[in-house]
Design brief:
With 147 residues, this protein is of the alpha+beta class. β6 and β7 form a beta hairpin. α1 crosses α3. The protein is globular. The chain starts with a strand and ends with a helix.
Length: 147
């Protein structure tokens, strides 16, 4: 099993605190900025950063649907980590200042990929597909906080 990683980043025209607070707001903001590949969004515990338990289904391809139950932690300032209880998937969101009134949001997801030929294709194509999904999410987030 090889580890698979997908990373996407975007400069957002809002300060880092505003962007981070929006990302950590699972009650109001997060559900609004998720693209169409996400469904069955539900906050099960908490709803604001650390201690949140959130569920969604992620349809990465027409055949691949991942049922996610994520525990949220905030290991350091400006960082959210979502660990999936149903798989090895871990997503880390990092928001840092990027000049006057701007911030850089980086999302990185890692998981243990399949073995064999299936694993080769997963490692080759999954990061690009997930990157497109997260790029749309970050665009939606930018639209939300740049209002």
């Amino acid at each position: 099993m090889a580890q698979v990683e997908a990373t996407t980043e975007r400069i957002i025209a809002a300060d880092a605190e505003t962007v981070f607070d929006a990302l950590a707001d699972y009650k109001e903001v997060r559900g609004k900025v998720l693209p169409g590949q996400f469904s069955e969004y539900e906050v099960r515990e908490g709803g604001d950063g650390e201690g949140t338990l959130v569920h969604w289904k992620l349809q990465a391809t027409s055949k691949r649907i991942r049922d996610c139950l994520l525990e949220v932690s905030e290991p350091t300032d400006g960082q959210l980590v979502e660990k999936d209880r149903n798989s090895s998937m871990v997503t880390t969101w990092t928001v840092t200042p990027a000049g006057e009134g701007k911030s850089k949001a980086v999302v990185s997801t890692v998981w243990n990929g399949a073995g064999g030929i299936g694993g080769f294709f997963e490692k080759t194509f999954a990061p690009k597909g997930l990157g497109r999904i997260y790029d749309e999410l970050l665009q939606n987030l930018a639209t939300e906080v740049e209002k």
